[in-house]
Amino acid sequence: MGLPSEVSRRDLRTRSKDIMDAVERGESFTITRDGRPMGQLVPLRRRFVAREQFVVSSQQAAAPSLTQFRADQDLWYDVSGADDPYGR
Q1: 3 with 29: CB under 8 angstroms?
Q2: How many CB atoms lie under 10 A from the CB of residue 62?
Q3: How far apart are CA 44 and CA 16, in angstroms?
Q4: Residue 37 and which of 21, 66, 67, 74 are 20 to 30 A apart at CA?
């Protein structure tokens, strides 16, 4: 498409679909206002893990402790009155 690497704020508003499509393809842009750089529009760096790698790493992970999980929940959340749904 040939979009410039600098895009004015006005161009970003009027051509946002084309610019966002280019970002999705991996292109980056500097957003300008009155010719001055104001920010950058860059694609997110996504890291995908292959299914096989996920399975292996999941099998090697330590088993979670239910007792520790409940203790953490009690520490962070107020569970008083949780047995009575009308106890407000």
Answers
A1: yes
A2: 5
A3: 17
A4: 21
- Look at the pTM and tell me if it is higher than 0.90: no
8 A C-beta contact, residue 87 and residue 81: yes
All structural domains of the chain with their residue ranges: 6-41
- Residues 23 and 40 sit within 8 Å (Cβ to Cβ): no
Closest CA to 31 of 5, 4, 54, 8: 8
- Contact between residue 29 and residue 41 where contact means Cβ atoms under 8 Å apart: yes
Query: What is the structure's pLDDT at 81?
Result: 60
- Give the whole-angstrom CA distance, residue 57 versus residue 51: 10
Phi-psi region at 65: left, alpha or beta (left = phi > 0; alpha = psi -120 to 50):
beta
Pairing of the two strands 6-8 and 36-41: unpaired
